[in-house]
From TrEMBL:
Transmembrane segments: none
PROSITE patterns: ADH_SHORT (PS00061)
Protein name: SDR family NAD(P)-dependent oxidoreductase
Signal peptide feature range: none
GO MF annotation, one: oxidoreductase activity
Family: Belongs to the short-chain dehydrogenases/reductases (SDR) family.
Keywords: Oxidoreductase
Organismal lineage: Bacteria, Pseudomonadati, Pseudomonadota, Alphaproteobacteria, Rhodobacterales
EC numbers on record: 1.1.1.-
PANTHER family: DEHYDROGENASES, SHORT CHAIN (PTHR24321), ESTRADIOL 17-BETA-DEHYDROGENASE 8-RELATED (PTHR24321:SF8)
Top-level lineage group: Bacteria
Primary enzyme class: oxidoreductase
Length: 262
């Protein structure tokens, strides 16, 4: 999809910035793309689900946003390089990125497995997408960023604590938190801020399929007493990509309704 060249909003937290959102076809990514457009950004929506990301991009373009939709597999280095090259060709720069794309235990066919019962292909797939994918995105995004740019990586409460029967997911998200902290130090002198958000339980198409008893158990452990909306998580990413968070880097921020505080 070629960029819609109609003018964007002149006011907003991300006014005039070029923002990339991966995993933008649904859930938190879609909510973040919409919020970024609302805040005045030129938005690049990326996802492996080409029809899904095109649909959302078309909707945003009709509302007057300047958008570009691209297809990407974040676990593939060439695909990620092509994504960032498309951003640079269309807009000439990249000001902020939300590396949100990821998979859960359902997508690795490893629901309920203990650490030692995981199959090697499930382990590798989880780390390839959820950890290596974040690193690949950062690697290519930073190459086209200038001072003042910001990156937000999607971690999880599983990056702060251990989740039972999800060793590969927990390992990947702990890796994202560590990667974020190390990279934030590496690029602080270049004026590029890098942070991670660590959501708890969120209402998304994926979690909507969870069994009622599992949802009830999750809510019972969350002091606020409910799942988050995708928009609430996206709002944290928007703030971290904006200049309002100019002194925040290397942080892994829990957005979990108090789950990890309890």
């Amino acid at each position: 999809m070629t960029p819609n060249l109609r003018s964007t909003a002149t006011a907003g937290l991300l006014a005039g910035k070029v923002v990339l959102v991966t995993g933008a076809a649904s859930g938190i990514g879609a909510a973040a793309a919409r919020a970024a457009a609302h805040e005045g950004a030129k938005v690049v929506l990326a996802d492996r689900n080409a029809p899904g990301v095109e649909e959302i991009a078309t909707h945003l373009a009709k509302s007057g946003a300047e958008v570009l939709a691209v297809t990407v597999d974040v676990s593939d280095a060439q695909s990620v390089a092509a994504m960032v090259a498309s951003v640079a060709k269309a807009f000439g720069r990249l000001d902020a990125a939300f590396n949100n794309a990821g998979i859960g235990t359902l997508e690795t066919r490893a629901v309920g497995n203990r650490a030692g019962d995981l199959e090697e292909d499930s382990w590798r797939r989880m780390l390839d997408v959820n950890l290596t994918g974040v690193w690949l995105c950062m690697k290519h995004e930073i190459a086209v960023m200038a001072r003042g740019a910001a990156i937000v990586n999607m971690a999880s409460i599983a990056g702060l604590i251990g989740l039972p029967r999800a060793a590969h997911y927990t390992a990947a998200k702990h890796g994202v938190v560590g990667l974020t902290k190390a990279a934030a130090i590496d690029y602080a002198d270049l004026g590029i801020r890098i942070n991670a958000i660590c959501p708890g339980f969120v209402e998304t198409p994926l979690t909507a399929t969870s069994k009622a008893e599992k949802r009830a158990a999750s809510v019972a452990k969350t002091p606020i007493g409910r799942y988050a909306t995708a928009e609430e998580i996206a709002a944290q990413a928007i703030w971290l990509m904006s200049d309002r968070s100019g002194y925040v880097t290397g942080a892994a921020i829990a957005v979990d309704g108090g789950y990890t505080a309890a």
